[in-house]
Design a protein that fits this description.
Elements: H1 2-43, H2 47-86, H3 96-105, H4 119-128, H5 138-153, E1 190-192, E2 200-201, E3 214-216, E4 224-225, E5 240-242, E6 249-250, E7 264-266, E8 271-274, E9 288-290, E10 295-299, E11 310-312, E12 317-320, E13 333-335, E14 342-344, E15 357-359, E16 364-367, E17 381-383, E18 388-391, E19 404-406, E20 411-412
Parallel strand pairs: 1-3, 2-4, 3-5, 5-7, 6-8, 7-9, 8-10, 9-11, 10-12, 11-13, 13-15, 14-16, 15-17, 16-18, 17-19, 18-20
């Protein structure tokens, strides 16, 4: 009986455990089902919310990534710059914008600047080394560059070069004429370096000195050679040009037409040649024209300044005096001795009312002396010697003001007029 009871209890307990196990299993399955339902509900989140979340992430990350890129580029540039400074085989760096400016403004498309042994490149290196170069106006940079080109182009044997190629204002660099080479506005107006042993050639860069009123570079023991730079035609304010006693060659460039304010020019004792360009007729303010001891040839220009007072062209190869010379009523001096003048002397010279000195010796002038010379009421000196004049001496030459009359070495005939 007891054994049956025990067996029954054991069976009952096993049944209860089985029931509990089934409940736990069902409970776990229910939990899993709930979790799966929750996961499914989460997977069903609207698409616009997910896109919004992605866009927000991009908005937040983009500035961060861009900033990181900028920092990386900055440190890369610094590293390259430091590396270049440490590399002793490279020349010292100079402001690239200055070099670009000089190339753009150059008269030869930067060819001279490309040659590191040229005066232009030397001038650039000097200017780039100036501590204040970036504070200067473009015109000041060009002015200092042009003057440096002149210095490097004309040798290193100047007698005086006080303050040249220093960082002092170029207005106080050495000049023979005055304490300052600039006007009250700081414009460089006076280049006076006569008798200072300049040699070499005049650089094209002088054309940058657009405010220049005077160029005075008379040769001394040493002389400037080469041709006149065409860029000088840009100097529209030029009033005086004195380059005598040098070794200049070539012709007067047609660009000289730009010298409309020129009052005096002296190119004597050079080796200039060719004809006088018609463009010098634009020099309407000209008072004196001197180019003695050169090799100019051909005719005098038919158009000369009506204000001309002195025409000194002795010792050239000029062949003709145009009849238009009679229009120059204010002309005082005519010096054309030792040229190649030939044929009949133009009688229109007798119309030059103010003429004081007429020197035409050592030419090949022929035929009679114009009687119109009797109209030269103020003439002091008349030299017609060493020509081929024929005929008699005109009685009209008995002018009260005449002090010197030379007619020797001609083929004149007859007696000296009693009126003399």
């Amino acid at each position: 009986m007891q054994a049956v009871t025990a067996t029954a209890l054991a069976t009952t307990e096993r049944e209860e455990d089985a029931v509990i196990g089934r409940r736990d299993l069902e409970s776990g399955q229910m939990q899993d089902v709930k979790e799966e339902d929750m996961d499914e509900s989460e997977d069903k989140e609207p698409l616009w919310k997910r896109k919004l979340r992605c866009n927000l992430c991009l908005v937040i990350l983009a500035p961060i990534l861009f900033s990181a890129l900028l920092v990386a580029v900055y440190f890369l540039v610094q590293w390259v710059h430091t590396k270049n400074e440490d590399d002793e085989t490279e020349p010292p760096a100079a402001p690239s914008t200055l070099f670009q400016l000089l190339v753009e403004r150059s008269f030869d498309e930067g060819a001279a600047l490309a040659n590191q042994s040229s005066p232009q490149y030397q001038a650039y290196e000097w200017l780039a080394s100036n501590s204040n170069v970036t504070t200067l106006s473009v015109q000041r940079q060009l002015t200092r560059y042009a003057l440096a080109c002149l210095y490097f182009s004309t040798g290193d044997d100047w007698l005086v070069d006080d303050l040249w190629l220093t960082e002092r204002d170029e207005c106080v660099w050495y000049s023979r004429s005055r304490s300052s080479s600039c006007d009250s506005n700081g414009n460089f107006i006076d280049l006076h370096l006569s008798y200072n042993n300049l040699q070499g050639t005049l650089p094209l860069e002088l054309g940058y000195l657009t405010s220049l009123g005077t160029i005075n570079i008379v040769g001394g023991n040493k002389a400037i050679g080469g041709s006149l730079p065409t860029s000088l035609g840009l100097l529209s304010h030029l009033e005086e040009l004195r380059l005598q006693n040098n070794d200049l060659i070539g012709t007067l460039p047609s660009e000289v037409a730009g010298w409309s304010n020129l009052r005096g020019i002296d190119l004597s004792k050079n080796q200039l040649s060719g004809t006088f360009p018609s463009e010098i007729g634009a020099w309407t303010s000209l008072f004196t024209l001197s180019a003695e001891y050169n090799r100019f040839e051909g005719s005098l220009p038919s158009s000369l300044s009506p204000n001309l007072k002195s025409l000194a062209l002795a010792h050239n190869k000029i062949t003709l005096i145009p009849v238009e010379i009679g229009r120059l009523r204010d002309l005082v001096f005519i010096e054309l001795q030792d040229n190649a003048l030939s044929g009949t002397l133009v009688s229109e010279i007798g119309q030059i009312a103010e003429l004081r000195v007429l020197r035409l010796s050592q030419n090949n002038l022929t035929e009679a002396i114009p009687s119109s010379f009797g109209n030269l009421k103020y003439i002091n000196e008349l030299d017609l010697s060493e020509n081929d004049f024929t005929g008699q001496i005109p009685s009209e030459l008995a002018i009260p003001s005449l002090r010197i009359l030379r007619l020797d070495s001609n083929r004149l005939t007859g007696n000296i007029p009693n009126s003399f």
